[in-house]
Amino acid sequence: MTENQQFAVVTGASSGIGKELAFLFADGGYDLLLCAEDAAIETAAAQCRARGAGVVALQRDLRGTDGVQELYAAITATGRAVDAAAVNAGVGRGGAFVDTPLPDLLEVVDLNVVSTMQLTHLLLGDMVRRNKGRLLLTSSIASTMPGSYQAVYNASKSFVQSLAEALHNEVKDTEVVITSLMPGPTETNFFRRARMDDTPVGQSSKDDPAAVARQGFEALMAGKDRVVAASLATKAQELASKVLPDKVKAELHRHMAKPKGG
């Protein structure tokens, strides 16, 4: 790493939106600390080094407070101030709420809610003290609707979206930027990991993660509070969510997320 370059942290950076965000930071002249739970983080790190970035790769599961503390210790060990961070790690779990094992649902809460809040608290505190920094929180279009057959995931993203909007207001008189990225269905490993391949949304066409990441990155750099990414269909869905009653949105989500065999 070189001290004359800016420094960014990206979680969930081994694939999908997180990996594309890492590429954009690397291309933008940032050194990086990349974190993910799987060994593919080393491949992502090598690809970012090939783009000219200095990279630290950290393989950690951020579910639970220990993983986040280990990540923050690794950040501190670099001796670098965090100029930008993408708190992107997240996981889903489809299926009927009562049929889903409780540990599976708690994993969604641990990663999407607890670790996101904990890491945001640590990073944002440093940024506010320095009066400088950019923080991107990956929310979801799912945050705008009750998630029948994906209930805990949608609820977790509603938490992230509300947190991002509240913190944006709290730091509005500082030089710190907070942006929420709200993707729609995106072509990543998400639906396979969430066991949602046998659903209409799992089998539908999806947005390009590179396009989603680029819109999120550009919104962060422009100082915007939020961005719905990436396709016109996703943007239209967000607009419709503003006017449709929750009961209607829950029924529409049911038709998207209920397994075809269920």
Number of beta strands: 7
Percent range for β-strand residues: 15-25%
Q: Which class of secondary structure composition applies to the elements?
A: alpha/beta
Major β-sheet profile: 7 strands, parallel
CATH superfamily: NAD(P)-binding Rossmann-like Domain
Question: Keywords for this structure?
Answer:
alpha/beta, Rossmann fold, seven-stranded parallel sheet, 15% strand
Task: Describe this structure as you would to a colleague.
- The protein has a seven-stranded parallel beta sheet, with helices on both faces.
- It has helices at residues 16-27, 41-50, 65-77, 102-130, 151-170, 190-193, 209-222, 232-241, 246-257; strands spanning 6-11, 30-36, 55-59, 84-87, 133-138, 176-183, 226-229.
- With 262 residues, it is of the alpha/beta class.
- The protein has a single domain (6-257), classed as 3-Layer(aba) Sandwich (Rossmann fold).
- The protein contains nine helices and seven strands.
Q: What topology does this entry show?
A:
Layout: E1 6-11, H1 16-27, E2 30-36, H2 41-50, E3 55-59, H3 65-77, E4 84-87, H4 102-130, E5 133-138, H5 151-170, E6 176-183, H6 190-193, H7 209-222, E7 226-229, H8 232-241, H9 246-257
Parallel strand pairs: 1-2, 1-4, 2-3, 4-5, 5-6, 6-7
Helix pairs in contact: 1-2, 1-7, 3-4, 4-5
